UniProtKB/TrEMBL annotation, chain A:
Stretches assigned to the Fungal lipase-type domain: 303-389
Protein name: Fungal lipase-type domain-containing protein
Transmembrane regions listed in the UniProt entry: none
Organism of origin: Catenulispora yoronensis
InterPro entries noted in UniProt: AB_hydrolase_fold (IPR029058), Fungal_lipase-type (IPR002921)
TrEMBL record, chain B:
Highest taxon, organism lineage: Bacteria
Name the UniProt record assigns to this protein: Uncharacterized protein
Length: 463, 439
């Protein structure tokens, strides 16, 4: 089978196709690709399964005819292409096909579906219509890894790393999927197939390491101990009320070295409520002694039970937060993912009533809270790369539940990592750019306004 | 230890050997399975003891074991009349014990609740079509939430109920049960009408109401998810779907495939039955096979046996069907009636002969599809895939014909769509040729 055709991204060719029509084309191609893949699976089974062996013994002529027809269908370049897959024999054939660049029609359709998605994203993200980005996309789609790496090097040199990452962030999922489908590694194709129809990845896109294996890299029962706030934190805490920008300030002051914060509020309605603030990832090392590390971030993306969630439980148990107490969690980046992971855990929300989750720059769209009455608010700076890592790009067919509040804006912090910093988020919420979102969030979390009874930072550790 | 004690100990011990259990699942070896051997054992015991209950001393405890259904029901009737029944443990097929929760009584069931069940089932059944066994659990849970608390959207409620029911460790079960109680109390703070809680005036201040509602919610979900698919399998295999057949199928499924292997029912105070003195502290071993089927030496399942309200359950310690379980069966029946009004059920799996029902029927493996009246034969396997490929071809051709592609970039995209449509058509032809039977 020839490599997939390319839906060219040419900035000089007006008028651009209607993005909605391109998305429709993408969805149709994705569905056709999935059916072709299933057809390959079924035909392989028809010619290699135990039932086929039994048929061969009982009705050899019929069985041989089936095998012959299936073999022709599985290698017809005008039809399914080299489409054998599934089962020991099918997977061995597929590996051989990938290694020798003999790809099925399903892959060609999937590639064109992703390309249509990329093209549909251009009107909203004009940075994608540059020759550098076009070169990268075409290199990935045409299975030219060296050319793709050279194109990436060129865009980094031309724009700088931060601006290049920002430019590519709207299509990062599609690029990863294209790379996975068209490379010679047969183990990472699952990532592309999962994201194709708007599902969410359960393995890493590069090597195809499954979530369970990532979990093994992030062991530990989680541990929490109260610590006194330092002077900076104490000062920020004193100024922070039930205002989202103030709470994000506290997250900034907590840093990324293992601190989280628990606040107890005596609300105006006479009820005690609890507020937990969770910072994001520390980038110093791949793995450190706290749950706030890169390995923890990968783990939190694919799983809901992590060292961070276990540590948070320890915090609540240490503080003797009573069962059934109302709780709100505000988290930045990995902290927001952890907040959503806790919201997904029926055991956790059965014990404490998690009324609000407010995430700040977090990739959480692939997670669904166990309690349908949990209010989910996702604050997103659209220049920020990190929130797109959940697999839901601007043109992904997947969407978030209608009850969620996704409050997004474009501010002046164009480049990553500045666009991802909690300080940038709190500044934007105080500015005219996102000030209205601040009002919206504050009205949603109004139940947590009241007298602060307890402010206690905790140091959390993996073990 | 006597030979019969050794025999019962060996039967229970065999349940702990995974190899033995797996081997008896091989077709043709079902007669060597624990259920069948237990029936044989009890039949022999009944003959040896001339129908009198035997005191058995096994590795897993000392029990009084009635060997016939009539004896067992008589003994339990006498115990209930003397108010002598104490608490109970579920005894699983490996002899392990699990504490059964006490039966939480319900207030008097309002007459309007029957109408509510019918209307609720009809609402939930709207749109349940195609392979209905895939949609059944969600529909059943939604109905249960709606009927008990008018909380159709609170999906956490049923997760907590099922977790509380399935937790084996006592501490874990209590934690989950406390979480369920808190969730129910949340709804009782502003109880809605048109549900059991609303009709009975349940309030957060009445713990009996919370216990009863938790029991009702759990019973409705568990019954619908276990009895429902099995009854559906019986109905699809039988081909009749009128109300009378649905009711019979639900009761037959509940009796034929009890969820509990046995229950050790403790005697709290002494009583007498048929000149037999039963002391306090005695444990009556109630084997579900004996209670439901009456033992292998009796007729398998007669109409008389089906009429009996006896049914063991892991939902509560009551040996007879309590009001809660009757309501749960009624809700399952109504949901089946409402769903089956949407079409004709076809049993896809497993193969089932209603005249000779299997010893085990896993409700999760039942696959039933609903087809419209007069629908043609269902396409399966490769033929269905070929039809799907044809449909994709048509959809891609349709999109390619859109005039919006009439410009430079669009023409390229149209070409891509047409090329893939052609591949789908060729693939459909190839797949269909493979599926075609040899003349």
């Amino acid at each position: 089978m020839a490599p997939a055709s390319v839906l060219a991204v040419d900035p000089a060719a007006p008028p651009a196709p209607d993005p909605d029509l391109l998305l429709t084309a993408s969805v149709l191609l994705a569905e056709a690709a999935t059916t072709c893949r299933r057809a390959g699976h079924e035909l392989t089974a028809a010619a290699t399964s135990r039932r086929f062996a039994a048929d061969l013994a009982l009705r050899p002529l019929a069985a041989l005819r089936t095998a012959w027809s299936a073999g022709r269908a599985l290698t017809n370049g005008d039809g399914l292409g080299f489409a054998a897959c599934g089962g020991a024999v099918g997977e061995a054939a597929r590996y051989m096909g990938v290694a020798t660049l003999r790809r099925p029609a399903a892959t060609a359709m999937a590639v064109d579906a992703f390309l249509a998605r990329i093209q549909a994203a251009i009107p909203e993200h004009p940075n994608l219509a540059t020759p550098e980005v076009t070169r990268i996309v075409e290199a990935f789609a045409a299975a030219r890894p060296v050319e793709a790496l050279l194109a990436l090097k060129a865009i980094f040199q031309h724009m700088g790393v931060t601006r290049a990452l920002t430019s590519l962030s709207p299509i990062s999922i599609e690029l990863c999927a294209l790379a996975g489908l068209m490379d010679v590694n047969p183990f990472n194709d699952g990532y592309a197939w999962v994201t194709l129809l708007g599902g969410y990845p359960t393995s890493d896109p590069f090597l195809g390491i499954p979530a369970a294996a990532l979990k093994a890299l992030n062991p530990g029962p989680g541990r929490a101990a109260p610590v006194p706030p330092d002077r900076i934190l104490a000062k920020v805490l004193a100024a922070a009320g039930a205002d989202i920008s103030g709470l994000v300030d506290v997250i900034s002051a907590l840093g990324n070295h293992g601190l989280v914060h628990l606040r107890r509020v005596a609300a105006a309605d006479g009820q005690d409520r609890y507020l937990l603030l969770l910072p994001g990832t520390g980038f110093g090392k791949l793995s450190n002694s706290t749950p706030q590390d890169l390995i923890g971030a990968f783990d939190a993306m694919c799983d809901i039970d992590t060292t961070y969630t276990r540590s948070v439980r320890k915090v609540l148990e240490f503080a003797r937060v009573p069962a059934g107490a109302e709780l709100m969690i505000v988290g930045h980046s990995l902290g927001g993912m952890t907040a959503m992971n806790l919201a997904c855990d029926p055991d956790f929300v059965g014990t404490w009533r998690l009324t609000h989750v407010v995430t700040v720059g977090s990739p959480i769209d692939n997670k669904r809270p166990a309690d349908p009455f949990t209010t989910v608010v996702s604050l997103v700076n659209e220049h920020d790369v990190i929130p797109t890592l959940d697999g839901r790009g601007p043109t992904s067919p997947a969407d978030i539940p209608s009850t969620w509040r996704e409050l997004a804006w474009n501010d002046e912090t164009y480049d990553y990592p500045l666009s991802h910093a909690p300080q940038s988020y709190s500044d934007a919420l105080r500015s005219a750019t996102a000030g209205h979102h601040r009002e919206t969030v504050n009205s949603l979390i109004g139940a947590y306004a009241g007298t602060v009874v307890l402010d206690q930072p905790y140091l959390v550790r993996d073990r | 230890m006597r030979i019969e004690d050794t025999g019962l100990s060996a039967l229970l011990a065999a349940g702990r050997l995974p190899g033995v259990r797996a081997a008896t699942r091989v077709p043709g070896l079902g007669l060597l399975g624990q259920q069948a051997l237990t029936e044989q054992f009890v039949a022999l015991l009944g003959l040896a003891r001339a129908g009198r209950p035997a005191r058995m001393s096994t590795l897993f405890g000392t029990f009084l074991l009635p060997a016939t259904g009539a004896d067992l029901r008589g003994l339990l009737d006498a115990a209930i009349a003397a108010e002598a029944l104490g608490d109970a443990d579920e005894v699983d097929a490996a002899g392990r014990r699990h504490r059964l929760p006490e039966c939480a009584p319900l207030p008097e069931v309002p007459r309007e609740f029957a109408d509510l069940i019918m209307i609720g089932a009809e609402d939930v059944a709207v749109g349940v079509r195609g392979e209905i066994t895939l949609q059944w659990p969600a529909a059943a849970r939604r109905l249960a939430r709606h009927l008990v608390l008018n909380a159709s959207d609170d999906t956490l409620l049923d997760r907590l109920a099922v977790e509380a029911e399935s937790a084996r460790a006592d501490e874990r079960r209590e934690q989950r049960r406390a979480a369920l109680d808190r969730r129910i109390l949340l709804h009782l703070d502003a109880v809605k009408p048109d549900c059991f809680a609303g009709l009975t005036g349940a309030t957060p201040e009445s713990p009996i109401a919370v216990d009863g509602l938790a029991h009702l919610l759990t019973a409705m979900i568990v019954t619908a998810e276990t009895v429902g698919p099995r009854a559906l399998a019986l109905l699809a295999a039988d081909g009749h779907t009128d109300r009378a057949h649905v009711e019979a199928a639900v009761h037959k499924a509940a009796v034929l495939w009890p969820e509990v292997f046995a229950v050790a029912q403790r005697v709290a105070r002494p009583f007498e039955w048929n000149d037999l003195e039963i002391e306090a502290g005695t444990e009556i071993l109630v084997l579900s096979s004996v209670l439901a089927r009456g033992g292998a030496h009796q007729a398998p399942v007669t109409a008389t046996a089906l009429d009996q309200p006896w049914q063991l359950s892991n939902l509560c310690a009551a040996p007879r069907r309590c009001t809660t379980r009757e309501l749960a069966l009624a809700a399952t029946t109504e949901l089946l009636v409402a769903v089956l009004a949407n079409g004709v059920p076809q049993l896809l799996a497993p193969h089932l002969n209603p005249a000779r029902p299997p010893v085990r029927l896993d409700p999760r493996r039942v696959r039933v599809e609903l087809t419209g009246p007069g629908a043609g034969p269902r396409l399966r396997g490769l033929e269905a895939t070929a039809a799907e490929l044809d449909a994709h071809c048509a959809a891609l051709l349709d999109l390619a014909s859109d005039q919006c592609w009439d410009h430079a970039d669009g023409i390229r995209t149209r070409g891509v769509l047409l090329a893939h449509a052609r591949r789908c058509a060729v693939a459909a032809h190839d797949v269909r040729r493979t599926a075609r039977p040899v003349p």
